[in-house]
Amino acid sequence: MRFSQLARILGCTTAAFISIAPIEVEAATFKVISGVTSIDRDHEDILRNIGLTLTGTNHTVAPIPDNYLVGFNIESATNFTFSDESGFTPLSGAIEQSGTVTFNNQITVGDFSIGFAPGRTVKDASGFVLRDTYSLNTILFDLSLPEPVVFDNQNLTIPDVKLLVSPEFANILQKPELTGLFAGTARIDAEVAAVPEPDSVLAVLAVGAALLATRFYTQKIKCT
């Protein structure tokens, strides 16, 4: 009898707790899994003005939208994650792309990596950079990420990303005065996937266990 009464109390208490406990909606985490990074045609025009003429591309893809200049496929090695808190909050990792471009039949850069680099000093930059990993292995452009970012839980679009000449690239060109120069516009169109949160999984399991325990004890009480 004491066991049945105790079970009844525990079951009712658990059920009451579940029914009245507030459900907190926490920010979810997402990872970029595929997509295209596209460069607008204004990039080609601006670079031509500083002596860099596009003379070839390799392993590039169709840009989004199709009136842009060139697209770079987002590779599976990408580990960039972000939260939907405040709409879009970058967390960690980098967006890895494949494809190269050649300027003046001499300089080939590509297989770009977009990620956060702390301590950047370029005016109006966000801290995110575009790094060449093909030949120069250096940061080519600091990025300005304007709002709004478009995100629907499955697709992430970051339009009108401003490319600003990095100090590193300006030094390679032997024109340090180019640092911070607006060098064109890029756009990121990515597919994303939700990243399960360990705490959320444990919470679901805990609630499930409580519900099962409540049902078990309720049935046991009815049978006794």
Structural class: alpha+beta
- Silhouette: globular
Largest sheet: 8 strands, antiparallel, barrel
The amount of beta strand, in percent, is 35-45%
Percent helix = 25-40%
Q: What count of helical segments does DSSP give?
A: 4
What is the terminal-to-terminal distance?
A: 9 Å
Brief digest:
This protein has 224 residues and is α+β, with helices and mostly antiparallel strands.
Structural commentary:
This protein has 224 residues and is an alpha+beta fold. 27% of the residues lie in helices and 38% in strands. The chain contains 4 helices and 14 strands. It has helices at residues 2-20, 41-49, 167-172, 198-223, and strands at 29-39, 54-58, 70-74, 81-83, 89-92, 94-98, 100-103, 107-110, 113-116, 128-132, 138-144, 150-151, 155-165, 182-195. The strands form 2 sheets. An 8-stranded antiparallel beta barrel has the order 1-3-6-9-10-11-13-14. Strand 12 (150-151) and strand 13 (155-165) form a beta hairpin. Helix 1 crosses helix 4. The longest helix is centred in the last third of the chain and has 26 residues, at 198-223. It is globular. It starts with a helix and ends with a helix. The relative contact order is 0.19.
